């Protein structure tokens, strides 16, 4: 699989939810750490609203067996992804990314301003493998499960 795999129903679901004008009012903003809120989910989809203070990052991870998509609602994010080589994609308000289960990335707010994004995963997000970036490769360093810190 590749990160170019189209998951249109997931992206369409995400974009429909992103049109909710009250969405940004739900986010709890922390001045130095990312914060997130799991939104009411349906079927086999999990949605998360994430607030990104300046300088915050997810660190390198995948989403287990889940495909995913995210859209920037406020600010700017930069996605670093690994597909045998480093790829960097800058995303502004309204920009979206979708990805297959084997996608490994580190999403960052490298700006001096906060950002907010909406994320969707299918099947439901149950686990994430964490990785270490070694310049010319990545190395798995552990697995986090839902309910253990997120």
UniProtKB/TrEMBL annotation:
Fe cation binds at residues 61, 63, 105. Gene3D superfamilies: Jelly Rolls. GO terms for molecular function: iron ion binding; oxidoreductase activity, acting on single donors with incorporation of molecular oxygen, incorporation of two atoms of oxygen. SUPFAM superfamilies: RmlC-like cupins. Keywords: Dioxygenase, Iron, Metal-binding, Oxidoreductase. Pfam families: CDO_I. InterPro entries: CDO_1, RmlC-like_jellyroll, RmlC_Cupin_sf. Belongs to the cysteine dioxygenase family. This is Quercetin dioxygenase-like cupin family protein.
């Amino acid at each position: 699989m590749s990160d170019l795999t189209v998951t249109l129903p997931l992206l369409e679901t995400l974009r429909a939810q992103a049109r909710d004008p009250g969405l940004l009012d739900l986010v709890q903003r922390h001045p130095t750490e990312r914060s997130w809120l799991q939104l009411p989910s349906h079927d086999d989809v999990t949605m998360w609203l994430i607030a990104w203070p300046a300088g915050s990052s997810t660190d390198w991870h995948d989403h287990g067996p889940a495909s995913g998509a995210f859209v920037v609602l406020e600010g700017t994010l930069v996605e670093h992804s690994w597909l045998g080589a480093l790829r960097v994609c800058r995303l502004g308000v309204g920009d979206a990314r979708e990805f297959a289960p084997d996608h490994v990335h580190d999403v960052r707010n490298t700006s001096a301003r906060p950002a907010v994004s909406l994320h969707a995963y299918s099947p439901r997000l149950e686990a994430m493998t964490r990785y270490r970036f070694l310049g010319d490769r990545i190395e798995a360093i552990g697995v986090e499960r839902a309910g253990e810190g997120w």
